[in-house]
C-alpha cells in the first residue's frame, strides 16, 4: 500500500490520523488508551506540542495540532507511537508491529474548516455507535475542553481561543458545544475521508496556498471541490482508511 502523507508547514493546523497494525483493536482496553494519552501529555511537556483536539478509539487515534515550526510534531509522534507500542508488547509478551508504518497528516484551514474538523473528531465514537454524545467517551479532547482538568492538561485552550478570535475560554466552550450539537442534529455522522486522507482541506484559496508552499512535493496532486470544502488530494485517494470502531471490540 502506498505510504501515508505527512507533509508539514509551520503555522498550519494538522489533523493527524494513525491506526493500529492491520486494523487490530490494540487500544481496546482503557489502560492502553490511558497510556497513549499519557505520552501525548509528555510530548506537550517535552517538545511543546500544541494540541487542539484528540480522540483515542480502540484501533486508531485522531490528533489535531498546530505546527510551530520546531519539529515538535514528528518528535512527538515518534515518542507516543514508540512508547505505546513498547509498553503494550512488553506487557503482552508480544512481538511485531503495533501501528501502521506511518501516520497521515492533513492540513486544515483555520476558521470554519477547523471548527468542522474538531466536530468531526469529537463525533467519532458517536458515528461508531459506541456513544450517544461525545461527552460519553472520556478519551477525548471534547471532555477536556468542556471540563478542563486541574492537572495534566493537554489541549491548549488559549491557542484555540486565539485561533478563533474568542477572548474568554468559557465563550469558546459554548461555541464548541454549539458546533458539535449542530453537526449531531444535522445527522452529519457519516465518515468523511476528506478529513483523514487529503493533503489539505479548506477554501479554494487555502488549497492553492498549500500547493504553492509545498511546491514539487505535490506537483501532481489535484484540487477537488467537495461541495462544502476543497481538498488537495492524494492521487486516486491511495491512502485507504477504515477508521470505524466496532462496539464489540471496546472494553
Descriptive notes:
Strands 2-3-1-4-5-7-6 form a seven-stranded mixed beta sheet, with helices on both faces. The protein is globular. It has nine helices and seven strands. It has a single domain (13-189), classed as Alpha-Beta Plaits (2-Layer Sandwich), CATH 3.30.70. Helix 1 (30-47) runs antiparallel to helix 2 and helix 3 crosses helix 7. It is of the alpha+beta class and 251 residues long. Mean pLDDT is 89; it is low at 237-251.
Tally of distinct domains:
1
* CATH architecture descriptor name: 2-Layer Sandwich
How large is the share of residues in beta strands? Answer: 15-25%
Number of helices: 9
- How much helicity do the residues have? 25-40%
Give the neighbour order of strands across the main sheet.
2-3-1-4-5-7-6
- Work out the number of β strands: 7
Q: Quick recap of the structure?
A:
The chain has nine helices and seven strands; from the N terminus they run E-H-E-E-H-E-H-H-H-H-H-H-E-H-E-E. It is an alpha+beta fold and 251 residues long.
Amino acid at each position: 500500500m502506498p505510504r501515508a502523507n505527512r507533509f508539514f508547514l509551520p503555522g498550519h493546523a494538522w489533523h493527524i490520523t494513525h491506526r493500529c497494525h492491520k486494523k487490530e483493536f490494540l487500544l481496546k482496553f482503557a489502560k492502553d488508551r490511558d497510556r497513549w494519552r499519557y505520552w501525548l501529555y509528555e510530548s506537550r511537556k517535552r517538545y511543546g506540542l500544541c494540541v487542539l483536539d484528540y480522540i483515542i478509539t480502540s484501533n486508531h487515534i485522531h490528533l489535531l495540532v498546530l505546527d510551530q515550526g520546531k519539529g515538535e510534531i514528528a518528535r512527538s509522534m515518534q515518542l507516543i507511537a514508540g512508547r505505546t507500542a513498547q509498553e503494550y508488547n512488553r506487557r503482552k509478551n508480544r512481538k511485531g508491529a503495533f501501528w501502521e508504518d506511518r501516520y497521515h497528516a492533513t492540513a486544515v484551514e483555520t476558521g470554519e474548516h477547523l471548527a468542522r474538523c474538531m466536530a468531526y473528531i469529537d463525533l467519532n465514537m458517536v458515528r461508531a455507535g459506541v456513544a450517544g454524545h461525545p461527552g460519553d467517551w472520556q478519551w477525548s479532547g471534547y471532555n477536556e475542553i468542556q471540563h478542563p482538568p486541574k492537572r495534566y492538561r493537554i489541549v491548549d485552550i488559549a491557542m484555540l481561543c486565539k485561533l478563533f478570535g474568542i477572548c474568554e475560554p468559557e465563550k469558546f466552550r459554548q461555541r464548541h458545544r454549539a458546533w458539535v450539537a449542530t453537526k449531531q442534529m444535522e445527522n452529519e455522522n457519516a465518515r468523511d475521508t476528506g478529513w483523514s486522507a487529503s493533503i489539505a482541506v479548506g477554501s479554494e484559496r487555502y488549497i492553492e496556498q498549500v500547493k504553492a508552499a509545498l511546491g514539487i512535493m505535490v506537483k501532481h496532486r489535484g484540487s477537488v471541490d467537495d461541495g462544502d470544502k476543497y481538498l488537495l488530494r492524494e492521487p486516486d485517494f491511495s491512502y485507504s482508511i477504515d477508521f470505524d470502531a466496532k462496539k464489540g471490540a471496546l472494553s
